[in-house]
Amino acid sequence: MIENTESLLPRSSHPDLPARAFTLGVDEESLNELDRLLDTCGVETLRRVCAPMRRITSGTYFGTGKLDEVRLEAEALGDEVDMFIIDVELTPRQMQNVEKILGKPVLDRAGVILEIFSRHARTSEAKTQVELAKLQYVLPRLAHLWSHFERQRGGGVGNKGMGEKQIEVDRRLVKRRIQILRGRLTTIEKERKVQRTSRKDMLKVAIVGYTNAGKSTLLNALTESRVLSEDKLFATLDATVRALNPDSHPPIVAIDTVGFIQNIPTSLIASFRSTLEEIREADLVLHVVDASSSQAKEQYETTCEVLKELECDTKEKMVVLNKSDLLKTPAQLNQARLVVPGADRLSAFDLEAVKKLRTRILDHFKTRMETWELVIPYHEGKLQSQLQEFGAIAQTRYIEKGIFMQVKLDSSIAQKLGVRRYATSKND
């Protein structure tokens, strides 16, 4: 049975050296990003080929002529190459055909991303989500990937292998495991829904952006907390909630979310649905862009596309260009200005700039505040408590019909609490 701990990436043929890959793609910048993905996995990019195409070959994606050229180039390196990484998402048949031509283990971009997610999953929820996505990826590719897993178990390339019957057994076991994980995710989604319900009367800021844009570092600075923040791709896989301003009425929380990336496997988006649901529930989206990246514009657009897929593209949004401390030349500063015209530039390490951003977020919510004059019946004790917790009380008087309150409320909170039925007047 395929274990979640088994790597999709083949091991190095040299025990004392990192695994080395020959990469093939259609875009230089995407290949640069693939280098970083592989580096996160501890794999060295030994050689790479960029081969833009006019049309896709159905059986192999790249034409067989180009694949033969790549094979000959790799053979010239002797036994230095452990694997080929193809910087696109291949179908199971394409992956199998490409491996036959190249003569060494092959993995695509989606497999590399899944491997990183698998290694970075820490919580039970993240591990469940990643394992499900990984098994859904593995199932149709099981025969092709079998030699990879045999090597993880100590088998050899020259061994005969486990055989077709064992693969069929594993297919059944994988399908059964997928059913179990789907059931577990259903339970997790219910728990997430309960957690979101407990925060329904809070205002929520979802921090989104391309992977490694500095979202967790910015969350730490905004909330003066200690969320894991590393200079690695996909260091954060779980939605992390922290109070932005616990003294505000209503309370405002900031939510860190998993980073996005180009060509993210659809199975991952589906598996992380309950985590990404936090974005849908948010009252404001804070879109963080790495201003120091040469691909900042493309990364911004990729995140916007994913937000659109999640049906969150119409939400109120603020965009900040993070890592501005890394912009050293006038050309870099000008390039950053063009990424998202009008967006604030800052560094998450600049506490004064972060303080201004926090104030801007709080001011955004203040503009949504409405002043209500209410008469709350004495028996509505719960509503009285909610108004004190989630509103800013200006006046309180006890009269014959109940408690008179003049209170400022966020418009969405006012609607959720249903205060209109007790209103004597309302001033926007």
Please describe the topology of this protein.
Layout: E1 20-25, H1 28-40, E2 44-50, H2 64-75, E3 83-86, H3 92-102, E4 106-108, H4 109-120, H5 124-138, H6 142-152, H7 164-198, E5 203-209, H8 215-223, E6 240-245, E7 252-256, H9 266-271, H10 273-280, E8 284-290, H11 296-309, E9 317-322, H12 330-339, E10 344-345, H13 351-366, E11 369-376, H14 381-390, E12 392-399, E13 402-410, H15 411-417, E14 423-427
Parallel strand pairs: 1-2, 1-3, 3-4, 5-7, 5-8, 8-9, 9-10
Antiparallel strand pairs: 6-7, 11-13, 11-14, 12-13
Helix pairs in contact: 1-4, 4-5, 5-7, 7-10
What is this entry, summarized?
This protein has 15 helices and 14 strands.
Description of the molecule:
The chain has about 425 residues and is of the alpha/beta class. About 45% of the residues lie in helices and about 20% in strands. It is built from 15 helices and 14 strands. The strands form 3 sheets. Strands 6-7-5-8-9-10 form a 6-stranded mixed β-sheet, sandwiched between helices. Strand 1, helix 1 and strand 2 form a beta-alpha-beta unit. Helix 7 runs parallel beside helix 10. The radius of gyration is 26 Å and the shape is elongated.
List key phrases describing it.
44% helix, 19% strand
Query: Globular, elongated, flat, extended or rod-shaped: what is the shape?
Result: elongated
* Uncertain regions spanning at least 5 consecutive residues: 155-160
| Major sheet: arrangement of strands | 6-7-5-8-9-10
Main pleated-sheet profile: 6 strands, mixed
Instruction: Quote the average pLDDT.
Output: 84
Reading the helices and strands in chain order gives EHEHEHEHHHHEHEEHHEHEHEHEHEEHE
Q: Treating each run of at least 4 consecutive H or I residues as one helix, how many helices?
A: 15
**Radius of gyration (Å):** 26 Å
| DSSP, total strands | 14
| Residue share in β-strands | 15-25%
Calculate the terminal CA-CA distance, rounded to whole Å: 62 Å
Helix proportion of residues, in percent? 40-55%
The helix-and-strand class reads alpha/beta
